[in-house]
Amino acid sequence: MPFAEYKRLLTQAYDLDKPEAPAPELARWMQFAREAHGPVLEVMCGSGRFLIPLAQAGVDIDGVDASADMLTACSQKCSELGVTVALTRQFVQDLELPRRYALAFIAAGWFGLLIDEDDYRVGLGRVYQHLEPGGELILEAETPALAPARSGRWFGRWWDRPDGARIVSRELGRYDPATRIEEALGIYELYADGRLVETEMNNWVRRFWTDTELADELHRAGFVAVDVVTDADGMLLARARRPATPR
Q1: What is the 3 state secondary structure string of 114-140?
Q2: Is 139 part of a structural domain of the chain?
Q3: pTM for the full model?
Q4: What pLDDT digit, counting tens, does each position of 2-46 carry?
Q5: 8 Å CB contact between 112 and 43
Q6: Are 154 and 138 contained in the same domain?
Q7: Are 185 and 151 in contact, with CB atoms under 8 Å apart?
Q8: Which residues are CB-contacts of 164 (< 8 A; sequence separation ≥ 6)?
């Protein structure tokens, strides 16, 4: 089961909710990108929260994501800011790009959207193949400690667009501690002048990872120098390399 394709209203709500990358996280990815000394790929780049400021800073970076609406939003921002990046719509497990990278990264726990064994194993293998020999993969993953406390209950939020329209969301999630997988349903509604003018439904899933499980999967994919630590926010930060010489 591939992760859900985030649609238009969800994308707009996401950008209203997170208009800029958090400074500490951006600084960390900026450091990793500059230390790579080569082209960078952001996997599951979304609407460009990290990709765009990295490109603005002169990082040679490409982006890939499965959501057409997220990539449209990213492309529009790039155009407005005069930033040129190569954006490709692909699932991670279908990754097929024309060049190889010194660094690939998956930020903000988005790796957890790959829940099926076939998807995350094939996905890690595809990323491995797109790294230069000695290239590095760095990804963040959420742990069970970050799993939602509420399950089986509706909750809602809203965001006001600059044009005065309002996006309202209602979300229902259920988390299974046995599988460490959350399934969620989000209903997003657009109101203009007090009238409902658009509705969309988004479904998504998340897997929550342990450090040993994630390390095992990286080794299985062929990576070496695997290191998985828990950062200050309680997220797993995993670093791994493609061997510099064929194994």
Answers
A1: CCCHHHHHHHHHHHHHCEEEEEEEEEE
A2: yes
A3: 0.95
A4: 446 689 999 999 999 999 999 999 999 999 999 999 999 999 999
A5: no
A6: no
A7: no
A8: 192
Whole-number average pLDDT of the chain: 95
Model pLDDT, residue 208: 97
Residue numbers of the domain that contains 223: 8-144+209-241
Say how many C-beta atoms besides its own lie within 10 A of residue 29's C-beta. Answer: 24
- Could you give the CA distance from residue 218 to residue 212 in angstroms, rounded to a whole number? 10
Cβ contacts of residue 42 below 8 Å, gap of 6+?
A: 50, 51, 54, 61, 62, 63, 64, 104, 105, 106, 107
Task: Report the alpha-carbon distance of residue 141 to residue 143 in Å, rounded.
Answer: 7
What single-letter amino acid sits at 59? V
Question: Using an 8 Å Cβ cutoff, are 142 and 109 in contact?
Answer: yes
* Low-confidence spans in the chain with pLDDT less than 50: 1-3
- Is residue 51 located within the same domain as residue 169? no
In the chain, the number of structural domains is: 2
* CA 130 – CA 123 distance, rounded (Å): 11
Q: Which of 66, 64, 136, 143 is nearest to 98 (CA)?
A: 64
